[in-house]
Amino acid sequence: MNTVAFSLLLFAPSGSGGPGATAFIIQIGLFIAIFYFILIRPQRRQQQEHKQLLASLQRGDKIVTSSGIVGEVVHIKDDEVTIRSGEAKFVILRSGVASITNRTAVEAKPA
Description:
This protein is α+β, with helices and mostly antiparallel strands. The chain contains 2 helices and 5 strands.
């Protein structure tokens, strides 16, 4: 009978929340903070860097698209980029540019 009374005390709900509720709230807060610093913050930084890369795109740049096509920028419109790869010309979306591999255009030097 002693073990039954102990198990009832062990699994009895705490009346006003007590220390169990505050520990749970702290755990949830830590989980959200870890989720933010491991997933959300680095992804925002990567999106910002990609946005700056697309803004700095110029004619003559050698690029790699997100589908793996390597080419040279021939013409730039608002959302479209014309690239030459080998003997072919492609029109791709600006957001499809994954990286700039070689800058041939002269960059402006800071004054």
